[in-house]
Structure formats: structure tokens, C-alpha cells
Design goal:
By secondary structure, the chain is of the alpha+beta class. It has two domains: about 210 residues, Metal-dependent hydrolases (TIM Barrel); about 80 residues, Sandwich (Immunoglobulin-like). It is about 15% helix and about 35% strand. It has six helices and 17 strands. The protein has a 17-stranded mixed β-sheet that branches. Strand 12 and strand 13 form a beta hairpin. It is globular. The model has no long low-confidence stretch (mean pLDDT about 95). The chain binds zinc ion (ZN) (2 copies).
Length: about 300
């Protein structure tokens, strides 16, 4: 069995949120209060991603003064430019931006803007796809993307459209290797804080190490359940987790391997039903219905697997 990323990697798990707003754009809570909320809830890092738009004076919110030995911040923004099949503008999360990232130009569309952000060093996320009916055709043009939001808590709470699985799995089925993260997208106009986050394995909690681990997929996503290990062998995928009522491995199309029960903490799922899929990903379902999600696993990237 090969224990997989991030479980086999050195370092410790850090809790982080990659997508949240303050009064620097349309959030209802001031920046220092937003940061304090995450800090006091035990998060290790946060990225404030205010809307990068002219009407908010192109904010790349400077959070450096909130960094200390225990807690850190990544500089980010939510980028917008024309257009998708169903929306005037794209919604693109960029984490790890330079503070002097230049305003969007008239000539830039979403994919071009995302490319410029990635070239400037950012991790690029496809935000809340279900909320604005982002299509697979749209997503295929966003070639700078690192990841899709598997769960956006604000969109789930306010619109019942927090899910990103259709877009993630659709892209994986096209062979596009994306990772996936859960986030709050909190605006603090509703109880939209603390509903989804990532657990990221890094050597230390410096912004550079976190950004590097993000790009390398050294994390999993959760609403609460813990993923403790995922290991892949020739016959099974073995999962260790906090007590669960279901553990599911999904793959291409509708292929899956599942186990349901009570208090599951060690589950060995047969890979036979997923034989035809080049990828799989793990979902842990807690007794309260809350989920944890692994990043996609590509069989051809796992050493020693035939
Ligand atoms: Zn948005
Ligand atoms: Zn947002």
C-alpha cells in the first residue's frame, strides 16, 4: 500500500480558509474583525479575497500586519472579467497575489486574467461553479486553474448551491488534473462562517510554505470529519478517518466503491468497481451528514501501482 499525499508528507496539518470577504468589498464585517474571527476559531491561516473590481477600488487586501508566529495570512482576491455562458463575469479565486497586482484591463477576459494571476504566483480556484451555472465548456477555457471549489458554504447556506462535484468530476473525466477545496466565502451577513475549510500539510506556517503546499495539492477539504490516511494498493483503497457513517470512493462517470455503517474508522474499499477509471477521490460522511473530501488521486501518479 502507498500512503498518499498529504498523509505521507512531512509537516503538520494547518487549518485554513481560502475564500472570504471583508468591508474592503461587499463583506459586512471589517477586516480586523474577520481576521480575529478566524484566528479565535483556531484557524492557522486565512486568505481574504475581496472582489477585485473598480467599484471597490481594485482591492488586494493587505493582511500582512495580522501575521504572527501562530497565525498567518495569504494575500488574495476574487477576480472578475467577462464572461461565461450564463454570467456576465467570471468568479475566480486567486491566493498568493502580489499586493501591486494591476487592475483588470478592458482586453482581459476571465481566462486571460486568471493566467496573469497565475504567472504572478497565485493559486487559482474556480469559485462556486453551481451558484452561477458554470459549464464544463467554460471551465475548459480556464487553463490557469489549479482547483475547483468542492463546497462553498455561503452559496450552500444562501442559495442551496454550494456543490462543485459536477464540475470537478466532469473536468477529471476530460483528463484535466485539478485539485479541490472547501471554503466559507463568508460575507458575515448570515451565519456563513466556519462551514468548510482545508486541512493543509506544510513544513511551517509561513505564507510561502502554505502557497507551495497548496499548489502541490498537500491538503484535503472538510466540513468537520477528519481524514487521517488514504493508502492505495493494487486491490483496495484503505481509508482511516474520524467515526463515519459512510466512506465513498468515486471515479469516472458513475463508477464508485462504497461502505456504509456506524462508527467506521478504518475502511478498505475494493478498487474493482473503479477499474475503468483513471482517477478516484474519497468522501467521508459523518453521522451528522457532514463531509470530508480528498483531492483526486490519479492512479498513474501512485508509485508501485499497476
Ligand atoms: Zn463569487
Ligand atoms: Zn466570494
Amino acid at each position: 500500500m502507498s500512503s498518499l499525499t498529504p498523509f505521507a508528507s512531512p509537516g503538520r496539518f494547518l487549518r485554513g480558509n481560502l475564500h472570504t470577504h471583508s468591508t474592503h468589498s461587499d463583506g459586512a464585517m471589517a477586516l480586523d474583525a474577520v481576521i480575529a474571527t478566524y484566528r479565535h476559531a483556531g484557524y492557522d491561516f486565512v486568505s481574504i479575497t475581496d472582489h477585485f473590481l473598480d467599484r471597490y477600488k481594485w482591492p488586494v487586501t493587505d493582511t500582512r500586519s495580522f501575521r504572527d508566529g501562530r497565525f498567518t495570512t495569504l494575500i488574495g482576491a476574487e477576480l472578475h472579467a467577462p464572461r461565461t455562458e450564463m454570467s456576465e463575469i467570471w468568479h475566480i479565486v486567486a491566493v498568493g497575489l502580489p499586493l501591486d497586482f494591476a487592475p483588470t484591463t478592458e482586453a482581459e477576459d476571465g481566462p486571460a486574467l486568471a493566467r496573469r494571476a497565475r504567472e504572478a504566483g497565485a493559486f487559482i480556484g474556480i469559485a462556486h461553479p453551481a451558484w452561477y451555472s458554470l459549464s464544463l465548456t467554460d471551465a475548459a477555457t480556464l487553463d490557469a486553474a489549479h482547483a475547483v471549489e468542492i463546497y462553498n458554504h455561503g452559496c450552500q447556506l444562501m442559495h442551496d448551491k454550494g456543490d462543485g462535484a459536477y464540475l470537478l468530476d466532469g473536468m477529471l473525466d476530460k483528463g484535466v488534473r485539478l485539485t479541490t477545496y472547501a471554503c466559507d466565502d463568508a460575507h458575515f451577513k448570515a451565519p456563513d462562517f466556519g462551514g468548510g475549510w482545508i486541512e493543509l500539510k506544510a513544513e511551517d506556517n509561513e505564507p510561502e510554505a502554505i502557497l507551495e503546499a497548496l499548489k502541490a495539492g498537500q491538503f484535503y477539504s472538510t466540513q468537520g470529519p477528519r481524514l487521517e490516511d488514504v493508502a492505495l494498493g493494487g486491490e483496495t483503497v484503505d481509508i482511516q478517518c474520524s467515526p463515519a457513517s459512510g466512506v465513498v470512493a468515486v471515479g469516472q462517470g458513475y463508477l464508485m466503491s462504497t461502505r456504509f455503517g456506524t462508527g467506521l474508522t478504518r475502511v478498505s474499499l475494493p478498487l474493482e468497481p473503479l477499474k475503468a477509471s483513471p482517477w478516484l477521490r474519497i468522501i467521508v460522511i459523518g453521522a451528522d451528514g457532514k463531509r470530508a473530501w480528498s483531492n483526486p488521486i490519479w492512479k498513474d501518479e501512485v508509485a508501485g501501482l499497476d
